[in-house]
Amino acid sequence: MKPAIQINGVHKSFGGLQALKGVDLTIAQGEFFALLGPNGAGKSTLISILAGLIKPSAGNISVMGFDVVNQYQQARQLLGIVPQELVFDPFFNVREMLRFQAGYFGRGPENDAWVDEILEGLGLADKAHVNMRKLSGGMKRRALIAQALAHKPPVIVLDEPTAGVDVELRQMMWEFIKKLNREGHTIVLTTHYLEEAETLCSRVGMMKQGEIVALDSTANLLNKFAGKQLRLTLGNVSLPANIQALLRNQENGIYTFALSDMTQIELVLSSLRAAEIKVLDMQLNEADLEDVFMSLVGVSSVSKS
Amino acid sequence: MINNSYLSSFRGPWTLLKKELLRFWRVAFQTVAAPVITALLYLLIFSHALESHVHVYDGVPYTSFLVPGLIMMSVLQNAFANSSSSLIQSKVMGNLVFVLLTPLTHLQFFIAFLFAAIIRGLVVGLGIYLVAMWFVDIHVTNFWMVFAFALLGSALLGTFGIIAGIWADRFDQMAAFQNFIIMPLSFLSGVFYSIHSLPPFWQKLSQLNPFFYMIDGFRYGFFGKGDVSPLISLSIVGASFLVLAMITLKMLKSGYKLRA
Question: Of A101, B73, B176, B251, which has the fewest beta carbons less than 10 angstroms from its beta carbon?
Fold first, then answer.
C-alpha cells in the first residue's frame, strides 16, 4: 500500500531564510498523525508545499504515490486541506460553497448526500442557507473544515483547526474527524494544543527550526523522553553530581527530575540519602506531550496560555 | 468511478465559471444596472450638448454615432472589472486558496475567468443597447462584425483584468490600473469623436491605442463605415488577445504571485 504522504528531503528557503532544512517523513494510510512545533518551526510551510501553494526549493512530496508538483491533479484530488486562516467567500451560503468546492474536484449532484453528512457531522445543518459572511467565527471555522472535506478526500490535513475554537465545537469536530479516521481517512493535524495530539493521534512528529526533531508513536515519545516526572521539595541544597543529569527544572527549592524508568527513583532517593539531603515533599507525575515538547524543542508551547 | 470520466473533468472549470457568473449576478444592481445607467447618462448629456455641433459621418446623427462607442466602452470596462475585481477580492480576502487547492489546471482557471468576463461584458453591452434603442435611431447592419468585436474586445479586456488581478496586491494598485490605464485608453479611443476630426499627431497617437480599433470595428458593424478597415481592426484586436492570453497562461502556469 502506498503511503498517504511521503516527504523526501524537502528544503525551502525564502530569500536568506531557510524555512525547511531537509524534511523526511512518511505517513501511512489510515494514520492519525500530529505535526507539532513552535511558531516558525516550518509546519505551515511544509503543509503549503503539500497543498501546492508553495514550491519546494528541493525534495519532493507525494500523496498516495502522486507527486504534488508533477502529478498535482491526482495528488490534490486525494487531498483535503483546512487552511489556517479563517477565510471565506462573502458571496455565497454554506451549502453553495460546499457544492462549488466539490464541483471544482469534478463532483456533481451525486455528491449531495455526502455534503449533507458533512453539514450534519459538523453541526452546520441549520446554517446551510446562511451566507458565509453572517456566520460567527466558530461557524466559519466549521465551514472551512467542511469545504476541505467536500470532495471526500482520503487524506485530510488540518492546519491549526482548533485555534480560537470553543470547547464544545472542538469536541464535536474531533468526534467527526475520528469517525472519518475510523472509516479509513488519513488525518494529519498541526496543533498547538498538545493534549489534543496526545489523545487523538497515534503518531507524532515534532518540528524545530525547519527540521523534524522527533518522530515516533505518541506512547513511545512519552516513554522515551520523559516517562515520569519526579518533583521533590528539598529546600536550598546542592545536588549530588550523579543525579544532576536527570534534573529538568529547579524553582524555589522544588526540583523536577525526568525519569525514563522507575528504577531511577531509587537512584535519586539513595543519592539524596547519601548526601544527607532531606526530602520534604514528593510527587510523581506521568509525563505529557508538553514535557516531551519542552525537552526537545526547548520552549513551552502555548497550550497552557 | 466518476472521478475519471469526461464529465467530471469538464465539471471543474464549469463550476468555477458558474461561481464567477453568480458572483456578479448576485450584485447585478452594481455590476450590470449601474454601468447601463452610466452609459445612458453619457448618452443623454453628450448628445444634448454636442448633437448640433459635431459632425462625424455623413448621414449619421451624432447621437446614433455615440451609442456603439458607449456600448463598446462599457463592454470593455466591465469585462476588465469582472476578472480583475474578482481576483483582487479573493486575494485580499484570502479565499482564492479554495480554488488554488483544487486540481483545476491553469488553462481551466483561465478559461473560467475569461468566459465570466466576456459574459459580464456582453450582458452589460446588451443592456445598454436594449435601453438605447428606444430613444435613438440605431440599427445593426452587420451582426457578425458587432458580435466578433464585442467577443474579442471583452476577451482581451477580461484577460487584461486577469493579469491586473494577479499582479495587484492591494485595492489601490487595482484602482491605479483602472484610472491610469483603462480609463484614459477608453476615453481617448474615439468613443465620443471620429479620429478624423483630430489633428494629425493625435490621429497617429490614437492609432497606437488598441481600444480605438475595438470601438471603430464595433461601430463599423452598425454603420458600415469606420476610421480604418474593420479587418485590420479585427486582426489587431485578435492578435492582442492572443499575446495577452499567452502572457496570462504563462503567469498562471508559473504560479506568479499566486503560488510562492
Answer: B176
Question: What is the grid cell recorded at B20?
Answer: 464567477
A92 and B22: CB-CB below 8 Å? yes
CATH class of A5-78+154-222: alpha beta
Domain residue spans of chain A? 5-78+154-222, 94-151, 228-286
The closest alpha carbon to A27, from A212, A151, A222, A289, belongs to A212
Q: What does the DSSP 8-state code read for residue B101?
A: T
Decide if B100 and A53 are in contact by the 8 Å CB cutoff: yes
Question: Where do the domains of chain B lie?
Answer: 2-254
Contact A104 B95 (CB under 8 A): no
- Which chain B residues touch A20 with a CB distance below 8 Å? none
ipTM: 0.91
Could you tell me if B93 and A90 are in contact, meaning their C-beta atoms sit under 8 angstroms apart?
yes
Average pLDDT over residues A34-60: 93
Separation of alpha carbons A90 and A133, rounded Å: 5
pLDDT at A34 over 80: yes
CB contact under 8 A, B94 and A85: yes
Query: Which of B86, B95, B100 would you mutate first to test chain A, the one with the most A CBs within 10 A?
Result: B95
Give the gap in angstroms from C-alpha B8 to the nearest C-alpha of chain A. 4
On whether any CB of chain A is under 8 Å from the CB of B15, the answer is yes
Q: Is B120 exposed, middle or buried (0-12, 13-18, 19+ CB in 10 A)?
A: buried
**pTM of the full structure:** 0.88
Smallest Cα distance from B193 to chain A, Å: 40
Instruction: Check whether A98 has a pLDDT greater than 90.
Output: yes
Query: Would you say residue A281 has pLDDT above 80?
Result: yes
Say if the Cβ atoms of B14 and A92 lie within 8 Å. no
Q: Taking 70 as the threshold, does the pLDDT of residue A36 lie above it?
A: yes
Q: What is the pLDDT of residue A63?
A: 97
CB contact under 8 A, A87 and B9: no
How does residue A301 score in pLDDT terms, banded at 50, 70 and 90? very low
Q: Tell me the nearest-neighbour CA distance from B31 into chain A, angstroms.
A: 14
Task: Please name the member of B18, B19, B260 whose beta carbon is closest to the beta carbon of A54.
Answer: B260
